């Protein structure tokens, strides 16, 4: 009888090692990617299951932008950086590249086919206006949007405007509501940064809430105005304030409750069967002082990894971003609990835009004959066009999922 062969000591070692590598490699890769983000979305949303388009970096892209200040008539002078004399062009030579996939280029014809016969409202502050003007410029490459504001309000009302794309029977509007909830500004113009403002946190702003019942898409974007002196009311009583009684710190209570009220409102609007989107906080990049202290944003390239770590406004941006994520999750949870036919999707641009101190008008913002430093809004064309690339991506993904559910 032959003696059985002895099994070499290392025979089991190689398969075991390979198994460990296979199991741990995805975890290690995810750890590396998540640790590179300053503000990582910690929620798995419908948009990110196939590919997290919100996690990535800006990569070189030598082709020309979709449009320019000569081909698009919808760019406000304040953000028309090239027209205002900005000499460099490197900020136009970058595209957002997710870690695990490609973000498709914006296809204006495809977008217009998706919204044929529908309507879209941008609700919030000037960040929404910034995104809307980018969208109008993108649409204008294939179909001309007609300004139909006069049908709804006076043409000199810059806060509420409507456009119509006849070939696709598509209407798009901007509805000014910088706090999303009802407010009363001590300055009649509402433009004085230091004017005291009263927020009624449990009462929605009727300026938008009374109009969105029949809209197919409602896109929320608000945040910049919440850094002012504020007094908070609920149930007719003062419940808190910000930058009051000689205090300078921020009180995020009002920010949280404003989003909660907005989400609750759109969830409960009778007859609303549309889709709502939350555009996350858009960060500013003032350096060497705030906007009223001589602050500037003169960079012509994105932040390096090291520069991102010491980003001046990191704590504030992280705080407001986290509030948005928590309220977004709670709104989805409540909709499921109530069995509502309500869709809420995320357009998470915060991490991408933190990296782009070069994308603001800076000293190339013109207000009449005066130039001021603007390190909050974004040049057009510029990185804000990415927001609409993401919007189209999410709309397509949701459409495909809805089709699959219907067919099954």
From TrEMBL:
GO terms for molecular function: O-acetyltransferase activity. Residues 50-102 form the Trichome birefringence-like N-terminal domain. This is Trichome birefringence-like N-terminal domain-containing protein. PANTHER family: PMR5_CAS1P GDSL_SGNH-LIKE ACYL-ESTERASE FAMILY PROTEIN, PROTEIN TRICHOME BIREFRINGENCE-LIKE 9-RELATED. It is found in: Membrane. It is a single-pass membrane protein. It comes from the Eukaryota. Residues 103-392 form the Trichome birefringence-like C-terminal domain. GO terms for cellular component: Golgi apparatus; membrane. Belongs to the PC-esterase family. TBL subfamily. Keywords: Membrane, Signal-anchor, Transmembrane, Transmembrane helix.
């Amino acid at each position: 009888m032959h003696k059985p062969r002895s099994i070499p000591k290392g025979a089991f070692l190689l398969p075991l090692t390979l198994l460990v590598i296979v199991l741990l490699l995805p975890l290690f890769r995810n750890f590396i990617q998540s640790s590179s983000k300053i503000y990582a979305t910690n929620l798995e949303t419908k948009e990110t299951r196939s590919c997290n388009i919100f996690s990535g970096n800006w990569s070189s892209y030598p082709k020309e932008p979709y449009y320019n200040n000569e081909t698009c008539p919808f760019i406000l002078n304040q953000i028309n950086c090239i027209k205002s004399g900005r000499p460099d062009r490197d900020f136009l030579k970058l595209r957002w590249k997710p870690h695990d996939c490609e973000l498709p280029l914006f296809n204006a014809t495809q977008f217009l086919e998706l919204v044929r016969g529908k309507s879209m409202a941008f609700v919030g502050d000037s960040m929404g206006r910034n995104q809307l003007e980018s969208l109008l410029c993108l649409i204008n490459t294939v179909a001309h949007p007609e300004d139909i504001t006069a049908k709804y309000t006076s043409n000199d009302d810059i806060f509420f405007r409507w456009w119509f794309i006849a070939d696709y029977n598509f209407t798009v509007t901007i509805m000014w509501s910088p706090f999303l909830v009802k407010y009363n500004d001590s300055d009649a113009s509402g433009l004085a940064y230091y004017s005291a403002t009263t927020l009624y946190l449990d009462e929605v702003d009727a300026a938008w809430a009374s109009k969105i019942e029949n809209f197919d898409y409602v896109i929320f974007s608000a945040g910049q105005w919440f850094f002012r002196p504020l007094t908070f009311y609920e149930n007719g009583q003062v419940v808190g304030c910000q930058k009051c009684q000689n205090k300078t710190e921020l009180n995020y209570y009002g920010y949280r409750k404003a989003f909660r009220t907005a989400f609750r409102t759109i969830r409960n609007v009778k007859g609303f069967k549309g889709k709502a989107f939350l555009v996350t906080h858009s960060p500013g990049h003032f350096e060497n002082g705030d906007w009223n202290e001589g602050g500037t944003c003169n960079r012509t390239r994105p932040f390096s990894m090291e520069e991102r770590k010491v980003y001046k406004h990191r704590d504030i941006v992280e705080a407001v971003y986290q509030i948005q994520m928590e309220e977004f999750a709670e709104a989805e949870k409540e909709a499921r609990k109530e069995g509502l036919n309500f869709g809420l999707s995320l357009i998470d641009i915060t991490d991408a835009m933190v990296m782009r101190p070069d994308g603001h008008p800076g000293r190339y913002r013109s207000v009449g004959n005066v130039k001021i430093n603007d390190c909050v809004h974004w040049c057009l064309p510029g990185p804000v066009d990415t927001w609409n690339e993401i919007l189209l991506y999410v709309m397509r993904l949701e459409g495909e999922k809805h089709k699959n559910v219907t067919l099954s």
